[in-house]
Here is the input.
Amino acid sequence: MDAQGAVFASAEMQRSNFQGANLTNVDFTKAELGRAQFHDADISGSRFSFANLARADFRGATFTAPIDFDRAFFFLTRIEGVDLSNSAGLSQWQLNMACGDARTELPSGLTRPEDWPCQFQQE
Here is the structure.
């Protein structure tokens, strides 16, 4: 799927499979993306502001330009091994309810929670 530059603002896209998709500079603002799969997708420069990312899976996603996660809902969002160091808009409360691990890279000023909430689910 090549959807670079697409606008999915406020779209209902729960359980969507974006595996391997080109999603560069896509606007997902306020989109419903619960349980969406982004494995091997290029999400460079995309905006997820206010998006519902509950249980979405970003493991294996790639990006070379910053991603905007401003106030996105991160309940059990899979970010194990993802380098988020250049992402924008992330806050500690989002990370505290996400699923990360020791390989997850975070932006300056944010810290890994002592216990990620879904260690029991990690593969």
The radius of gyration is 13 Å. The longest helix spans residues 92-96. The mean pLDDT is 94.
